[in-house]
């Protein structure tokens, strides 16, 4: 474990933008954290925990310590008739873990295939897609408190999971370093949930569908709609889908009858941010210098086509947010972490 100075993060963010960290260190085991905590450097400097860098817009220079989570390992800690329990290192690649579980025929995270990032990032924003959220398979999350150096375990119910959110987003003011996550995945399910979009892709009867079919269909859908960050710099959805009140939804539908909306608990409706952004005229927009823009196939994705900067992308995010507010009166909230 060596601390590096003025270290380039270009390879460590899926936007692929130029970014440099004043200090950078890779964490391969819980024990790597303790000397850093004891040194006091995390009190003297600001710090940032980086996983796959797939949901973050880094500044050109990060004047602090970047701790890159590289903790590996997938351990089976329980294997019963109906389920398996895994303890997974937070630095493991998320999609590799999905593949591993699907190859074992397990249910729980098959619809979350191809989401970029690490296992440790999955509870932070409670990743979700095609009607499934990671929270439904998480048993507990293991952390080290970077303020005290104490190991802490949070059971699912303590994590405050909700749509794209959890207590880890600002847990203990960002002092929690997730070291591993425990998942329970099922061998059988009473009712196998498959979203309408996935079922259409599959064209199979529900009783013939296995987790690997769902995983494969999700991969097909994602490859069609979303840019591969290895080929085009992006960080997935830039904004969360906003929740609006019943009255606000009715008001919007009067003006825009074709607006999609999905009923949620507490008399709220979820409206696709991608639709709002497309209607505000942004889909396929490209900057004058042709370095960045809004993805042609999906308006919720900002892409870095060339050498764009954090300042340029931040300005675009603000401009999109403003125009959606002006056109629809709906406030979009970033899904991506902006520093
Ligand atoms: N839509 C448009 N124009 C667009 C994009 C979308 O009109 O350019 C409309 C369509 O009506 C579509 C609806 O928006 O039916 C929803 O679009 P989509 O199914 O692509 O899903 P999303 O709500 O935009 C969410 C997640 C994705 C996840 C998909 C699939 C959020 C913020 N995003 O996107 O997650 O893959 O559902 O379930 O909830 C991510 O978080 O990075 C991400 C890609």
Q: What do these coordinates show?
A:
With 339 residues, this protein is α+β, with helices and mostly antiparallel strands. The strands form six sheets. A five-stranded antiparallel beta sheet has the order 6-7-12-10-11, with no helix packed on it. The chain has a four-stranded mixed beta sheet with strand order 1-2-5-3. It has a three-stranded antiparallel beta sheet with strand order 13-18-17, covered by helices on one side. It has helices at 33-39, 41-44, 94-103, 121-124, 196-202, 211-225, 246-255, 273-279, 310-328, and strands spanning 4-8, 20-27, 46-50, 56-57, 61-69, 74-79, 83-89, 128-129, 132-133, 138-145, 151-155, 176-186, 233-237, 243-245, 262-264, 268-270, 292-294, 301-304, 337-338. The chain contains nine helices and 19 strands. The mean pLDDT is 96. Helix 5 crosses helix 6 (211-225). The two termini are 26 Å apart. A hairpin with a 2-residue loop joins strand 8 and strand 9. It is globular, with a radius of gyration of 21 Å. The structure holds uridine-diphosphate-2(N-acetylglucosaminyl) butyric acid. Uridine-diphosphate-2(N-acetylglucosaminyl) butyric acid (EPU) is lined by residues 129-130, 225-226, 236-237, 240-241, 260, 272, 274-275, 278, 283, 298-300, 335. Residues 129-130, 225-226, 236-237, 240-241, 260, 272, 274-275, 278, 283, 298-300, 335 line the site of uridine-diphosphate-2(N-acetylglucosaminyl) butyric acid.
